[in-house]
Design brief:
The chain is of the alpha/beta class. It folds into two domains: 193 residues, TIM Barrel; 55 residues, no CATH class. It contains nine helices and seven strands. Strands 1-2-3-4-5-6-7 form a seven-stranded mixed beta sheet. Helix 1 runs parallel beside helix 2.
Length: 275
């Protein structure tokens, strides 16, 4: 079995539709896939419909944004009930935060003589929420950037047009919401936060207290040395291990769907908790 428990569709900041993600996963011989769009479960219905005609076992997922010690942290919720009220309330709150930021971004661009609103909105699926990659795509369409890399260099970053900081809920809110939704909360891509081992241990202690029970060990961006370090921490704090590519686009070779090292056998896989 091959589990990729972290990927995105165009319902958040991915390029592909949920059905296209399922099709690609099937081609990559992935047996179990979790669609974990940022702060939304809107793509799950389409994903389930597509999975019926594939060999994929689809797991309901989400990636929720929060803060810890003034840092942005991402927590993946796996095997969730996408209709549970407590979880939906947190999703609604984060969606509203994104909408308010998007409106402020539109206004900032307009004040600088760039009418980007319609171009951005054309990139978003029904009920979707504008993300920074949607703004980057709109900048390319308007001829203001040749690619996303240039878009994020000229705009959308601190000190540039279109940058609006976000205020996310505290980590302490997210773990309980995922648990209330019947899911397992997992720390996403822990090496990406650029924390020392000591600070990562502090984060893990706080997240465990908040009900986060797992950690991604093998991702598209973790090397064998990092996997060994994360495995040691997972064993120390009795965490479930998870695997995921954090796939967004076929144009990002550093995060291909299903491409990561296997989970070390000394860890208990998070999928063992799924019913």
């Amino acid at each position: 079995m091959k589990h990729d428990l972290h990927c995105h569709s165009f319902y958040s900041d991915g390029d592909l539709s949920p059905a296209e993600v399922i099709q690609l996963a099937d081609q990559q011989s992935i047996t179990h896939l979790a669609l974990t769009d940022h702060d939304t479960v809107d793509g799950l219905a389409e994903a389930h419909k597509a999975a019926e005609n594939s060999s994929i076992t689809l797991i309901n997922g989400i990636e929720l944004s929060c803060t810890w010690e003034q840092r942005l942290i991402h927590i993946v919720g796996l095997n969730i009930d996408p209709k549970e009220k407590t979880l939906l309330a947190v999703i609604k709150e984060n969606k509203q935060r994104r909408l308010l930021r998007a409106e402020a971004m539109y206004e900032d661009f307009e004040q600088n003589g760039i009418d980007i609103r319609l171009a951005v909105q054309s990139k978003i699926p029904k009920n979707g929420v504008p993300t920074r990659p949607h703004f980057a795509e709109a900048l390319i369409e308007l001829g203001l950037a040749k690619d996303k890399k240039q878009a994020f260099k000229r705009y959308l970053v601190k000190g540039k047009t279109g940058y609006v900081p976000m205020r996310w809920p505290d980590l302490a809110q997210i773990g309980p919401a995922i648990t209330a939704g019947g899911g397992v909360a997992v720390l996403a891509h822990p090496t990406r936060y650029k924390l020392t081992r000591t600070k990562l241990s502090w984060l893990i202690k706080d997240m465990v207290a908040a009900g986060v029970k797992g950690m991604e060990i093998c991702t598209a961006s973790t090397d064998k040395q990092q996997i060994a370090m994360l495995t040691d921490l997972a064993e120390k704090f009795n965490l479930f291990g998870s695997t995921g590519s954090d796939f967004h686009s076929e144009h990002q070779p550093w995060a291909k769907l299903g491409r990561f090292e296997p989970l070390p056998k000394t860890l208990t896989p998070v999928w063992n908790t799924f019913k």
